[in-house]
Amino acid sequence: MKIGERGQVTIPKKYRNRFGLSSATEVEFTEQNGQLVLKKAGKKSHPIGKFVGVLKGRGLRSDELVEAMRGK
After folding, report:
1. CA gap 58, 46 in Å, rounded
2. Mind listing the pLDDT tens digit for each residue in 9-19?
3. How far is CA 60 from the centre of its chain?
């Protein structure tokens, strides 16, 4: 297999199928023990995701929370 002029390579179909790689799959390259390794990129979380559920169990409805935040 050769690297094309634009630095592209084709991953053979048997490996794409085996490892669940599609045209939309995010991948990353790392170096391990002097070898270049291709792996699926980790799922990126949404920046607001860490706040989901932090108010659960506080006993406030959303409108009450907004009023409390506004100092009403």
Report:
1. 24
2. 999 999 999 99
3. 32
Q: Residue 12: CA atoms inside 13 Å, Cβ hemisphere, count?
A: 5
- CA dist 51 and 3 (Å) reads 44
pTM: 0.51
For residue 43, give the nearest of 29, 31, 25 by alpha carbon: 25
Angstrom distances, CA of residue 24 to CA of 27, 31, 55 = 9, 23, 35
Please state, in angstroms and rounded to a whole number, the distance separating the CA atoms of residues 39 and 58: 41
- Give dist(CA 38, CA 10) in Å, integer: 12
Dist. CA 39–CA 19, nearest whole Å? 9
